[in-house]
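Long-time lurker. I teach an intro course on protein structure, and each term I like to show students one example going from raw sequence to a predicted 3D structure in token notation. This year I'd like something fresh instead of my usual example. Would anyone be willing to generate the tokens for the chain below so I can use it in lecture? Attribution to the forum is fine with me.
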Amino acid sequence: MQIYIVQPGDSVDGIAVAYGLAASEIIYNNQLAYPYRLAVGQALLLGAPGTPQNPREFISSGYAYPFIEQNILAESLPYLSELCIFSYGFTAAGALVYPALPDEWLIAAALAENCRPVLTLTPFGEDGNFNNYLISAMLNDAAARRNLCWELAAVMRLKGYQGVNVDFEYILAEDRDMFSLFVAELAVIMHDNGFTISVALVPKTYAGQPGLLYEGMDYAALGAAADLVLVMAYEWGYTYSEPMPIAPLNWVRRVLDYAVSEIEPDKILLGIPNYAYDWTLPYVKGETKARTLGIVEAIQQAAELGAEIMFDEPAQTPYYNYTLNELEHEVWLEDVRSLQARFALVQEYGLAGGGWWQLMRLYRAGWLLLADTFYIAKNQG
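-- Reply from a regular --
Happy to contribute to a lecture. Here you go:
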């Protein structure tokens, strides 16, 4: 497959003729909406996946909520090694809290596609946000830790889960060692029951990095205890930040330089964002809130508004500006070029693969590019 950058005056029919392809194939692969407008600077994926260019298998992981649309899940599962179902919680006493919606149908769908269903464990409080005091209460109570580990193993056996993903954030600095201990204790019980364990890691660039997001995570200890880690290398640009790339490659590289110094590369999954942000300008700290878009939605918006999509070379990330109702906007998104750059990092650093946050919106061209680049590691069990 190849990536084509749309030039002024281009049309789908013209590109199809120039490359000897069916226009319908270009439309389908890139999820173009009628009347098939194109944005100057838009990256199109042309052709069909061939034999993967890299003979090494790529562990492809992705998070999904139980309310994901069935057609999106069905189209995504063939490209996934594991499906992380989001999410289960817990009480301070270590009692497992089930998701509000049934998860059995996602487990069955994953197993039918030879994809490992993984239970995601999160410390959400009643307000739906990460709660570090809930984490602290559970971690510092040996009985609570033990109870949570055994309840997890029991529900995983009952429902058919094959692994657990621990996704804790904002861990207090004083709970750093207890968190590592909890993961090690959970790993023993998971392995005794034939399950795997993975941990989501915030994107640190050095061991002593200050800040609430970073201080509670010990890369070396967590990497030693877990089978896999997902480095969440995204959210530099986020809902309340100033407009900037979501996952600038120059910063992602700094995170990976540190990660591979503490953790075996073949245990690391590179986090990959599957979304875009649209900021209204001027940015006002504490007031401006970016709107979240799907990748396809962001590209379609550029085409409909006549905005030219630019490409930031150091960040390896596309962006564009537009004016609507006298308000200026700046949009940072992902596309096949930014994905291709991340896949190249996986190869360069010898990583195990990548993990998508999240799967709720379909970006078909991303899956096709993955299939053209790597063999996807499917469940052998």
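Some talking points for your students: The mean pLDDT is 96. The longest helix spans residues 142-159.
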